[in-house]
Amino acid sequence: QQQQQQQQTDPSSDSSASSLPTCIIEAVNSERMVMHEEDSLDLAESAADETAVYRALLLLAERRLYRLVRWSRHLPAFNTVSTEDQIALLQNCWVELLCFDCCWRSLQTPSEIRLTANKCINLEAARELGAHGIVGEILALTGDLCRIGLSLTEYACLKVIVLMQPDAQGLSCPEKVRACLDEMCQSLMAHTVTACPNEPNKFAELFLKVADLKRTATAAWAMLAGKDLSPYLETNSLLMELFKSSRLRSG
User: What is the gyration radius of the CA atoms in the chain, in angstroms?
Assistant: First the structure.
């Protein structure tokens, strides 16, 4: 169902793809490299053990993080910056990218978050876990993106925009990141004008959703920051390492 939606709303899937700027083609190709990887969620339909639920969800987030790393490494623009700056960029936006991934997967089911192909969580189930606040925010953002008609091309470009932020803490070469960001923003704006002539404000709407995504990610981090994740994750797991580094960066 999601593949069908992507084909219907993705202008890069037709003959117009040849006229797309290189940075957009690269963003879409990078997304396609990882988008068909399926996840499983080892969680009973009515799991009563809250620890088991959190462990399953965090392990799912861990797998998605590894996918985000693979995705970023497929981006030629990302590979123009140093390894240290790549790490700083990912540390800066990993929560936003995970939230955005949830939104994208849930466009066909905007009343519930699609965790995997066959597992969803709605607001009622989230309330039982004490996570209704963040789930409500993700659902609201998903509804907005659904209304806007977010396409695969736009989604791929926005992910790059979220990633390539020159104000990320610890960058040694922010001007190189700024150049990549500016190129993508200008290319996406030109693309929306051409692909969506009846929606002159689409780029502005999409860009506003990036700000909303940042607020949603801040809420997600606030929920996680006060939790002890050690009962759920290995000490040296990627998620645990990012969690600890984000705690240090946020003071």
Answer: 18
